[in-house]
Design a protein that fits this description.
This protein has 356 residues and is α+β, with helices and mostly antiparallel strands. It is built from eight helices and eleven strands. The protein has a six-stranded antiparallel β-sheet with strand order 3-2-1-6-5-4, sandwiched between helices. A five-stranded antiparallel β-sheet has the order 8-7-11-10-9.
Length: 356
């Protein structure tokens, strides 16, 4: 009888011990969940704050970089414009050219020697920036074009091979746009990527005859290089437009973007901001160069800015990952300051007692 009661006592103690163990395990598990939750919240907060700051810094750096590119490009274009103005002024003083500009109209046959003398007297143009690739002079009195070492009468015959900006533009359209247009103007076709033509009037300082035209050939590739030299390759699109928003040149790979911009009417935007085209958001910067008659525009897709921001916080994420284990050990319910895991007490079974 005594032995049976003693056995029941042992069973009750075992049950109580198991209940205490379950309660202890539950407490440890709860502390473990709380620890994980706290660490995840800290990690997410640090990453979120870092990402927001990285995005802000990326946009700020982008705007600052574009501003520097614009300042450099505007300075280069201003120098090129000054070169063209100075060169045009020098052409005014060329005696052979003044003889051809004098008079209302004249037959080419009667001026053959004058034309010959002029094409050999015309100087070559030097542009330190490499943007001007050449020039030609239109003389309305004889409806001829002269250039260093070259002369052209019956212009329509030579139009396609020597003067056309776009393969699809007819001669009469080009003539009205470039040769007969008043004042300064710039013309190009961004789809063909050919040269731009910058037109300056050339009056006659002596006889005051019909004003001619000096047409400077502008290298599209050299002009775009001013904008793309410091860019991130495919992540950035560079455009050159006239002041009315018509695209004159675009960096390779920007065709669909240009078409969407023109269809939406966003190509004439100034300053800095965001536009949505082609299902993506682009951060753009634009600045006009009035003397040259163009507006420069740089566009970067939002996805590229996100990638840049992600690269910026990669180091922060690595640091947080490395800090995860010490934090986990600190918050762990089994953490021991001495660096050793506390030993779990062994459960001792009571020795059986003999019945008396």
């Amino acid at each position: 009888m005594i032995y049976c009661r003693w056995g029941e006592g042992i069973q009750m103690k075992a049950k109580n011990l198991r209940a205490k163990e379950r309660t202890g395990i539950g407490r440890v598990f709860s502390r473990l969940i709380a620890c994980y939750t706290a660490l995840i919240a800290i990690f997410a907060g640090v990453c979120g704050y870092s990402y927001a700051q990285a995005m802000k810094i990326s946009v700020s750096n982008l705007v600052s970089r574009n501003q520097l590119i614009f300042e450099s490009s505007a300075f280069t274009l201003q120098n090129t414009f000054d070169t063209m103005e100075s060169f045009t002024a020098n052409l005014y003083g060329l005696k052979q050219l003044q003889q051809l500009l004098g008079g209302v109209s004249w037959p080419v046959e009667g001026k053959t020697m004058n034309i010959y003398d002029t094409i050999h007297a015309l100087p070559a143009i030097e542009d330190a920036n490499g943007i001007i690739s050449g020039y030609f002079v239109y003389i309305p009195g004889g409806d001829v074009i002269v250039a260093p070492g070259q002369g052209f009468a019956h212009l329509e015959r030579y139009y396609a091979d020597h003067f056309a900006i776009s393969a699809g533009q007819e001669y009469e359209s080009w003539r009205a746009q470039v040769l007969l247009n008043e004042g300064k103007s710039i013309h190009a076709d961004w789809q063909t990527g050919r040269e731009m033509q910058f037109v300056m009037p050339l009056g006659n300082a002596v006889t005051g005859g019909k004003p001619g035209k000096v047409v400077y050939r502008i290298s599209t590739a050299s002009l775009l290089k001013q904008l793309t030299h410091f860019s991130d390759g495919a992540d950035q699109h560079a455009l050159v437009m006239d002041l009315d928003g018509n695209v004159l040149a675009a960096s390779p790979g920007s065709e669909e973007l240009v078409r969407s911009l023109q269809e939406s009417g966003s190509a004439a935007a100034d300053s800095t901001g965001e536009i949505s085209v082609l299902g993506d958001t682009f951060r753009y910067s634009a600045q006009a160069v009035p003397e040259f008659g163009v507006r420069l525009m740089l566009l970067v897709p939002h996805s590229a800015i996100v990638r840049q921001a992600g690269a910026s916080i990669a180091g922060m994420v690595t640091i947080c990952s490395l800090a995860w284990w010490p934090l986990w050990r600190w918050f762990s319910p089994t953490f021991c300051p001495c660096g050793k895991s506390p030993a779990r007490p062994r459960r001792q079974r009571p020795a059986p007692r003999a019945c008396g």
